[in-house]
Amino acid sequence: MSLLAFLLTVQLVLSSKAASFQLGRQASVVTDGLDLPANSKLWAQYSPWYPAQEYAALPDGCALKQVNIIQRHGARFPTSGASKRIQSAVAKLQGVDNYTDPALDFLKTFQYDLGTDDLVALGAAQSNEAGATSFERYSALVNESSLPFVRASGSTRVEDSARNWTAGFGEASGNVYVPKLSLIIDESLNDTLDDSMCTNAGNSDAQTDQWLSVFAPNITSRLNAAAPGANLTDTDTYNLMSLCPFETVAKEQVSEFCGLFSDEEWSGFQYMGDLDKYYGTGYGQELGPVQGVGYINELLARLTGEPVQDQTQTNRTLDSDPATFPLNRGIYADFSHDNEMIPIYSAMGLFKQAAPLDPTDPDPSRTWLATHLVPFSARMAVEKVGCEGKEYVRVLVNDAVQPLEFCGGDENGLCELGAFVESQAYARNNGDGDWEKCFD
């Protein structure tokens, strides 16, 4: 069996301790062996996961009582649409008679051979390692009668990520606690782990097109001069840049396309991702944050031990059944997409900006950075914490503790549970009428 097939066929992984150990051992090699360039942190939503900060222990006198994890699927191949656009741009470069820049000479023998949509081996390893880390960090919250409750949105790469997480969690426990993927939510139905329900929501095309017209023309001109007759467009340039992260994560070696662009040019690429997420399903999209309301209301139910109260995208049949939405677990792990995690952050109130992102002029002090918010295998953990008889909430995004100023967070990022619940008025009010705007 190939490594990729082995990593993705998690049911086989779970069939024996030997196989499970082999996955963990190989996953570590796969991840640690990938020597990424520094500019990989400028690849926006295509950046491989890395901790935004070192995980901070709780203050003395505090103990974990519950954790709710939501995680993006691991690194993947391009989508089918992106793959076609990338191949079209590559064909233009390869269709010329000669190159005036030797940096393009590798294209004389280059063959595009990436798959579409599914996880790559590195993506499977990322989720496996995240599961192992979750056990190491939160093992006090699990026992034989209370294993992690795991859900996934019904997309193959998301389901595979969830199964690799459970495998990593299980093997880190010495196969004492082996959770299963408890629930797959159909993306054609009500689904709090996918962003497809708000049919009237807009997109980020206007803003990303504006920025493309600012940062890409000089790059396009340079490439066209290096490949006379290629007649690349600015859109082609973006697609060629995106091939760098996709080929790197797929082949676990730095793509030769990465070296065609400077760090300054990669900063422009990064801002395309920032704008895409901000105006796609984030604060810059009128009907962006409302798409995170359902998940927030599920989160509040888990934190308080009370039934879900929501009139937006929750599946009320599933959420009213203890078998499909239990309220007595110490660890919950949900697997989703970047375009759903962004509205969840926004509905909660994380990463608010002093001013909307400018489509023509990046603010260097912005904290809205797609690479910090939703890299491949991004994760948010909402911890319920007990400190000297009181209950608190702490939120970490890619291990970085969030200040939670909207609910009075202290220097440790802790705010009282009641204050956190009160701060989520937008979700508790079902989006203040925004949900109804999603439909004609």
Describe the structure.
Disulfide bonds join 62-387, 198-438, 244-258, 407-415. Monomer. Keywords: Disulfide bond, Glycoprotein, Hydrolase, Secreted, Signal. The chain is an alpha/beta fold and 440 residues long. It folds into 2 domains: 3-76 and 118-201 and 281-438, Phosphoglycerate mutase-like (Rossmann fold); 80-117 and 203-280, no CATH class. Helix content is 40%, strand content 11%. It has helices at residues 3-8, 10-13, 17-32, 80-94, 121-138, 156-172, 205-215, 217-226, 234-251, 263-280, 293-304, 316-319, 338-348, 370-373, 417-423, 425-428, and strands at 62-72, 149-153, 181-185, 331-336, 379-387, 390-397, 400-401, 415-416. Strands 1, 2, 3, 4, 5, 6, 7 and 8 form an 8-stranded mixed β-sheet that branches. Helix 4 crosses helix 9. The longest helix has 18 residues, at 121-138. 51% of the residues are buried. Residues 1-32 have low confidence and may be disordered.
